[in-house]
Amino acid sequence: MTEKSFKGKTVLITAGPTYEPIDPVRFIGNHSTGKMGYALAECFAAHGAAVQLVSGPTGLHTNHTNIEVKRVTTAEEMYKAVLKRADAADIWVFAAAVADYRPKTVADKKIKKAGDELTIELVKNVDIAAALGKEKEEWQFSVGFALETDNEAANAREKLRKKNLDMIVLNSLKDPGAGFAHDTNKITIIEEEATHTFELKKKSEVAQDIVDLIWKRTNG
Ligand code: CTP
Ligand code: CA
């Protein structure tokens, strides 16, 4: 056990994409692999936390005895799984790339090819981080992620405020080697009163930087 122990703490983490079905064989998804969320789960577990990992569809696995994995597919399922586990968790980490919209109706049969255009009507999904932010208690600490292409810091700061987060991790897309599907990431961590910039690193090392700062804030 290192000095940075999360023993006795429960950490709830969302990870991976969500898939929103269109018909029995198709869905709307995104390129999230879940690597960052799983790396965080491993890191917290290694530091003694009891981890509840709510994971969208990914090819990743973990065998750590401190990590309990709940697999979900859609944003709605992820929200329900998170709601069940949130009250008991000291720290919430929203690393999932939740689909913002889902098809308004799901066809019960495969949609057949017809005509030159197809329009699919979408409706907004619940914002899991924002919904939980409204319920957050004084003793709970929440962390969000943001991936922006412009006005990065300002947009991330806005999300920090809107979702009642204590910390937001901004992923840079500008750096080659950062973001989706890479094993490296370059992050900036934004808090109300401070901004921390980091070099391009392996996702496991990025996870350690994030966990270190969360430890400081929850044990300071
Ligand atoms: N998030 C969530 N539920 C959603 C959408 C986002 O919990 N339905 C969380 C993400 O896990 C992340 C944070 O909110 O921690 C920011 O996600 P992001 O997609 O960057 O923000 P949005 O509010 O969806 O804004 P936009 O996609 O328009 O930039
Ligand atoms: Ca979004």
UniProtKB/TrEMBL annotation:
<dbReference type="GO" id="GO:0004633">
    <property type="term" value="F:phosphopantothenoylcysteine decarboxylase activity"/>
</dbReference>
<dbReference type="GO" id="GO:0015937">
    <property type="term" value="P:coenzyme A biosynthetic process"/>
</dbReference>
<feature type="domain" description="DNA/pantothenate metabolism flavoprotein C-terminal">
    <location>
        <begin position="7"/>
        <end position="215"/>
    </location>
</feature>
<dbReference type="InterPro" id="IPR035929">
    <property type="entry name" value="CoaB-like_sf"/>
</dbReference>
<dbReference type="InterPro" id="IPR005252">
    <property type="entry name" value="CoaBC"/>
</dbReference>
<dbReference type="GO" id="GO:0004632">
    <property type="term" value="F:phosphopantothenate--cysteine ligase activity"/>
</dbReference>
<dbReference type="InterPro" id="IPR007085">
    <property type="entry name" value="DNA/pantothenate-metab_flavo_C"/>
</dbReference>
<dbReference type="GO" id="GO:0010181">
    <property type="term" value="F:FMN binding"/>
</dbReference>
<dbReference type="Pfam" id="PF04127">
    <property type="entry name" value="DFP"/>
</dbReference>
<dbReference type="GO" id="GO:0015941">
    <property type="term" value="P:pantothenate catabolic process"/>
</dbReference>
<protein>
    <submittedName>
        <fullName>Phosphopantothenoylcysteine decarboxylase/phosphopantothenate--cysteine ligase</fullName>
    </submittedName>
</protein>
<keyword id="KW-0436">Ligase</keyword>
